[in-house]
Design goal:
Elements lengths: L6 H10 L20 H20 L10 H11 L5 H15 L21 H9 L3 H13 L10 E2 L22 E6 L5 E6 L1 H8 L2 E10 L2 E7 L4 H16 L7 H16 L4 H11 L5 H7 L2
Antiparallel strand pairs: 1-2, 2-3, 4-5
Helix pairs in contact: 1-2, 2-4, 3-4, 5-6, 5-8, 6-9, 9-10
C-alpha cells in the first residue's frame, strides 16, 4: 500500500481497492468486496479513525498495521463507543486486512428506547407534508420501507423478487392489497404490499418515462412521481418536529410496521418465532438480531 500522509487518504485508498459496485451483495457474499456506496462510506470513516489512532501513537499507517494493533484499537474503542460502531470498525479492519478479528464487546451502556410512531402520529406528520412527501410517508408506513426504497417501487408483475432467498408463504397474511417490489440493501429485491387505496394513489403518479435520480451518491431508476431518499427523510423529520415536538427519524416507520405486524400475526395465532421470521422477510431482513431491534 502506498504511503499517504493523511489518515483520510489512507482510508480512501484502502476502500477503493475493495469496492465492486454494481454487484449485488447478496449474490456475492463472502467475496471480501464492498458492494454498496453506503458500506464503502462507513468503512472509509472507520478506517480513517483507525489510521488516526495509529498516527497519534507513532505506529505507522494502514499499510503496515498488525493484527495485535488492530485488536488493541478495538479494545480501546470498546470503552467509548456503542456495539454497533465497534462492530463496524471491526468489519472495516477485517476487510482491509483480509482476516477475521476477535469480536470485542462494547463497555458503553446503550439506552434502548422505541423509535416507532403510532398511527395517529403518522397521520399528523403526513398531513403536514406536501402531497409528494405525504404519499411517500403513508406508503413507507404501510409497507415498512427504507427511505431509498421509495425510489425503487415497481409493480410485482414487472420485477421478480430475489430468487436466492426462500420466501415464506405467510408474508402479508391477514392483509390484502396490491403487491409491489423494492430494492433494499445489498440489491435484495423483495415484495411489499400496499392497500388498494394507496396503490391507486401511487399509480396516479406513474411517470410516462422512468427517470434517473441520485440519492446519497447512488443512482436509482424511479417510476413514480413521489419523493424518497434524503429529500423525503428530511421532510419527514421536519414535519414530525413541527407536529409532535420530536422526531424519531423516518426509519421509525419501519419500527412501527414491524411492531404492528408482530401484533397482528400473533393475534391470529402464529407463534412468536414464526411471526418474527415472517416480519423479518417483510422488512427485508433475514437476521434475527436486526429484526429484534425493530420490536423494542
Amino acid at each position: 500500500m502506498p504511503r499517504f500522509r493523511s489518515a483520510k487518504a489512507q482510508a480512501e485508498h484502502a476502500v477503493s481497492r475493495k469496492v465492486s459496485l454494481g454487484q449485488g451483495r447478496h449474490d456475492h457474499q463472502g467475496d471480501g468486496r464492498i458492494h454498496s456506496v453506503g458500506t464503502a462510506r462507513g468503512y472509509e470513516q472507520a478506517l480513517k479513525g483507525f489510521a488516526e489512532y495509529l498516527q497519534t501513537r507513532h505506529l505507522g499507517d494502514l499499510g503496515c498495521v498488525t493484527v495485535k494493533e488492530a485488536q488493541q484499537y478495538l479494545a480501546d474503542r470498546a470503552a467509548i463507543v456503542a456495539q454497533k460502531t465497534l462492530d463496524l470498525d471491526r468489519q472495516a479492519i477485517q476487510m482491509h486486512l483480509a482476516i477475521q478479528l476477535e469480536v470485542v464487546k462494547s463497555e458503553k451502556v446503550t439506552i434502548i428506547s422505541t423509535r416507532s410512531y403510532t398511527t395517529a402520529q403518522v397521520e399528523r406528520i403526513a398531513s403536514a407534508q406536501t402531497e409528494r412527501n405525504s404519499l411517500a410517508t403513508q406508503i413507507a408506513y404501510t409497507a415498512g420501507l427504507r427511505a431509498h426504497e421509495l425510489l425503487t417501487l415497481r409493480p410485482a408483475g414487472e420485477r421478480q423478487a430475489s430468487t436466492h432467498r426462500e420466501w415464506s408463504g405467510d408474508r402479508f397474511s391477514g392483509r390484502s392489497g396490491e403487491r409491489y417490489t423494492v430494492e433494499g440493501k445489498g440489491g435484495l429485491v423483495r415484495e411489499v404490499l400496499l392497500s388498494k387505496d394507496l396503490s391507486t394513489r401511487l399509480e396516479a403518479t406513474r411517470l410516462a418515462e422512468p427517470r434517473q435520480v441520485t440519492d446519497r451518491g447512488v443512482i436509482y431508476t424511479q417510476r413514480y412521481d413521489i419523493n424518497g431518499g434524503r429529500v423525503w427523510s428530511q421532510s419527514f423529520s421536519a414535519a414530525s418536529k413541527r407536529e409532535l415536538g420530536f422526531s424519531n427519524g423516518a426509519h421509525g416507520l419501519r419500527h412501527s410496521y414491524a411492531q404492528e405486524r408482530m401484533q397482528e400475526l400473533q393475534h391470529s395465532g402464529m407463534r412468536y418465532d414464526e411471526a418474527k421470521r415472517t416480519v423479518a422477510q417483510e422488512v427485508g431482513h433475514f437476521d434475527k438480531e436486526t429484526t429484534e431491534a425493530y420490536l423494542r
